[in-house]
Amino acid sequence: MNAHQKKVYKDIIKPEADKGVLTAVTQKAVNEMYRDLYKFKARFTRCGSCLKERLVKLQQVYEASCES
């Protein structure tokens, strides 16, 4: 995760994920970052478990990038 992605994750994605509700704009940011990091096409979804899985994976990458 590069510096810009870390900032977006920390300032935009993480606070909304902690509240348990993502706006459409934030979900778009999640999907774009997920695509960039995993090279997997992520689309807008209403599936809570699908979105939660993406957020967990992004958190893992964020934590790993902060350690290095």
Describe the fold and architecture.
The protein has 68 residues and is mainly alpha-helical. The protein has one domain. 76% of the residues lie in helices and 0% in strands. It contains three helices and no strands. The chain has helices at 3-19, 24-38, 48-67. The chain starts with a helix and ends with a helix. The mean pLDDT is 92.
Backbone CA Rg: 11 Å
Poorly predicted runs: none
Shape: globular
Tell me the number of strands. Answer: 0
Q: Output the helix-strand order.
A: HHH
Helical fraction equals over 70%
Tell me the fraction of residues in β-strands, as a range: under 5%
Number of helices: 3
Which structural category fits the helices and strands?
Answer: mainly alpha
Mean pLDDT: 92
Number of domains: 1
The rounded distance between the terminal residues' Cα atoms is 11 Å
Largest sheet features = none
